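Record minuted for completeness.

…
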Amino acid sequence: MTNDRVPAASTPPMPTRALRTGHHLTELGLGAAQFGNLFTETTDEQATNAVKAALDEGIQYFDTAPHYGLGLSEHRLGQALGDTTGVRISSKVGRLLVDSPETADRLDDDGFVVPAAKRRVWDFSRDGILRSVEQSLARLGTDRLDIAYLHDPDDHWEEASSSGISTLVELRDQGVVGAIGAGMNQSAMLAEFVRQTDVDVVMVAGRFTLLDRSALDDLLPIARERGVGVVAAAVYNSGLLSTATVDSSAHFDYGQAPKAVVERAVRVAEVCERHGVSLPAAAVQYPLRHPAVVSVVTGMRTEHHVRSTANRYREDIPESLWEELHSSGLAPDPTRTS
């Protein structure tokens, strides 16, 4: 599978935004963590149908990682894409998969419903990254990655920002990787990667949403200044923004949502309702209003998830909604603050 040819003429167009490397990402991307049986089992057929639906909707950016299902997500994504051309694929490094026959009789203990026949080993060394990329290419059935992210290097800054980045730069120079960066659930360290290293793109999960705009304070300004693209992930904040009516029992940031956060989400939903907009649609489209953001990636397990997410991305949202959210202090409009 190669990733450098143009899509078929029959593919519905979806707007793209460019990285400084020249790679174009569709404004909506498919996050494939659930292809790795995240929290519940997914079938090969469901994953394949989700990818087919994504391509039909014009989505051409797909994100995965070895961490997701101990390689299962990458394998399923590669199988589903087959010889599809014109797509952009990102995967991650830093959690090397090694054989673990002694635990193969039990399930993975990191949220994925898969046999623990392999284990994750933190490794941001040159050798670890080279091995990780080689394994990812084999599972995906391709000869290059469009983007390689350092995966959650929160506790590994020294190694990740030195040998990790230098190895990715080497792979970028060789053409094995198109663009390089880091993906994290925090914005502060991502801002340091942008400030101190030669990254092209970063993925920030849950820190630039209708409920958590912390990336506006540190990451987004420096990313825009340096010409580094930002991919916004986890825009539903673990589920609290994923339904039109806010569920007080929904999760926020991987845990039980605090009462104050739920109340703020309800207020945002009420504003959306007044303007005839669904809360999830606003959640998907809000990050795209910032000029540094190149794509929004959401997890999609099935064809239904893909279709509903594409509808949310395409839902017509009047400027009056963003104006009220901004003036009320509920969510600053990035077009006014960036």
User: Anything to note?
Assistant: The CA atoms of residues 97 and 120 lie 5 Å apart. The first strand starts at residue 16 and ends at 18.
